[in-house]
Design a protein that fits this description.
This protein is an all-alpha fold. The chain has 18 helices and no strands. The protein is globular, with a radius of gyration of 23 Å. The N terminus and C terminus are likely disordered.
Length: about 550
């Protein structure tokens, strides 16, 4: 491993963190403006359409992982012919998605009913083109990542996301809650994303190694190799989108418009820390596992999981104590869901936090068959639970289905991880962090209820102060160690790496080694809900 490997890992992690942070902020801003502009009924139809393109796109959403593996291998071998065949396959798949996927999205919106047919057709066409653009930007991300262009790999996604936000902001400023105008704006957005993707390809891939020529034969072999990754992508998409799609199919649009923003806001607050930490955890876990050190991997898993839990739990306490107040302040009283829905969503996220970084550990240490089986279990659980609960219980049924399916997936992940490596989330230090937080959460919720006569600001201050006291307790008892947090800071790592070695005979020294790993997967664009909190790979 050379210095170039370390440099790429660091720059890629920084680029991903910046892009993820931008995506989270943009998603929240876009959601708030859109629901205030369109209202819960019209926004419900838009949310249904956005979730529909996630579900449709998930069928091929895992293919960028196959692209990354191929580009990395062919680039190392300087296989220009293989890269041209790969681009022929990708171009053919993009065209197929435009024809089949776009038509399916339009059909889903047409049969949904509601606004005039021409508005639904234009909205469906716009969403269909955005679907194609998302797939193209994810593919370019994988190509640039495989060719070690850390910044360039983020550009097409950034441009596509910015164009989507620009459409909503423009309509909000104009005060025009028109589905037709929104659909037209999405058509422009899709074109912009496709153009940005091709410009990045031209910039990072030499002219003799790329082509726009279509090849069904190459596309067939490419998709066949990507089947395992496509299956895992479908499972992730079902977990984060199928509840919204089912609501759109079985319940009024207003319920979709009230549930989806609540789910997005809750996910943005409680999933972000794990999402950021997973950026560096996965390559480190892959390198450690390659050395055959399961105990070292177990230690890394526990340390990162505890830090993620400690950072996230204060947000969970405050949101659980004041769900109605926070949600109404963000989306408005008429667009808010019930506190019970928020509490169920929070419960599912906290349980996921308790399992820690199990997804990254499984991806690093378990085989492809195990990964495929585990995600098949999660996919089946989400589909079956949603279809049973949503028609009868609406938003609450969707939240319960999401929570139980997430728990099922995490149990399957942890069971597989334990069988193959001995790693599990029941370490005493991890249990102590979780149990102590449950005591604090119970105290805060009871106090907020008993002190209802206090002002809202005073009760929020009490919840924040109590959460901060718990964080101090966790560090004070060394359940989470300050030196572990310091060791994750880039500046500290650079200092350790550049420190001069001791002179011979003057003492002993320690050495550390790091390595790289590559991996992508599937999930939703940040315009939708944030993906799995423990870092389930997203494109």
């Amino acid at each position: 491993m050379g210095r170039g490997d370390l440099r790429f890992v660091g720059s890629a992690a920084l680029a991903r963190m910046v892009a993820t942070g931008f995506g989270l902020v943009r998603a929240l801003v876009t959601t708030i403006l859109a629901i205030r502009l369109f209202g819960s009924d019209l926004y419900g139809l838009i949310a249904y359409g956005l979730s529909a393109i996630d579900v449709v796109g998930s069928i091929v959403g895992g293919l960028p992982t196959a692209t990354l593996r191929s580009v990395t291998r062919m680039g190392a071998d300087d296989d220009g012919g293989g890269l041209r065949h790969l681009f022929s396959a990708i171009g053919t798949v993009v065209l197929a998605i435009a024809a089949v996927g776009g038509s399916l999205v339009v059909a889903l919106l047409v049969v949904r009913g509601g606004p005039p047919l021409h508005a639904r057709l234009l909205l469906g066409a716009g969403l269909g083109l955005v679907l194609v653009a998302r797939f193209a930007t994810n593919q370019v991300f994988a190509v640039a990542q495989g060719m070690r262009h850390a910044v360039a790999m983020e550009v097409p996604r950034f441009v596509l996301a910015l164009a989507q936000t620009a459409v909503v902001v423009t309509l909000f400023v104009m005060g025009r809650p028109s589905l037709s105008l929104f659909g037209g704006g999405l058509l422009v957005t899709g074109v912009v994303g496709l153009v940005a993707s091709w410009l990045v390809v031209r910039a990072v891939v030499p002219a003799d190694k790329r082509t726009l020529r279509l090849s069904p034969r190459h596309a067939y072999h490419y998709t066949r190799e990507g089947v395992p990754y496509a299956l895992s992508g479908m499972a992730i998409s079902a977990l984060v989108s199928f509840d919204v799609v089912a609501l759109g199919l079985f319940r009024p649009s207003g319920e979709v418009g009230r549930y989806q923003p609540a789910m997005r806001i809750e996910s943005a607050l409680l999933a972000s820390p794990m999402t950021f930490l997973a950026t560096g955890f996965l390559p480190a876990a892959i390198e450690i596992h390659s050395r055959g050190s399961n105990q070292e991997l177990f230690d890394l898993y526990a340390v990162v999981s505890k830090i993620a839990y400690t950072v996230t739990f204060p947000f969970a306490i405050v949101l659980a104590a004041f769900p109605t107040e926070i949600l109404q302040a963000v989306v408005g009283k008429q667009n808010s869901t019930t506190p019970e829905v928020i509490w169920v969503l929070i419960g599912g996220s906290v349980l996921e936090l308790c399992f820690g970084m199990n997804t990254g550990a499984v991806l690093a240490a378990c085989g492809r068959r195990t990964i495929t089986t585990v995600y098949a279990v999660g996919f089946a659980a989400m589909i079956s639970l949603t279809l049973v609960l949503v028609p009868f219980y609406g938003q609450l049924g969707a939240a319960v289905a999401l929570g139980i399916a997430g728990l099922t997936l995490n149990v399957a992940l942890s069971t597989s991880l334990y069988r193959e490596t001995g790693i599990h989330p029941l370490r005493l230090d991890m249990l102590a962090v979780a149990l102590s937080s449950s005591v604090v959460a119970s105290a805060v919720l009871v106090a907020v209820h008993l002190l209802a006569s206090w002002s809202l600001a005073a009760r929020i201050a009490l919840a924040v102060a109590t959460s901060a006291a718990w964080v101090v307790f966790v560090f004070g008892t060394r359940l989470v160690r300050v030196e572990d947090v310091r060791g994750m800071l880039p500046g500290r790592r650079r200092a350790a790496e550049t420190a001069p070695a001791p002179a011979p005979g003057t003492g002993t020294g320690t050495g550390t080694g790091t390595g790289t790993g590559t991996g992508t997967g599937t999930g939703t664009d940040t315009d939708q809900a944030v993906t799995a909190a423990d870092g389930t790979p997203v494109p």
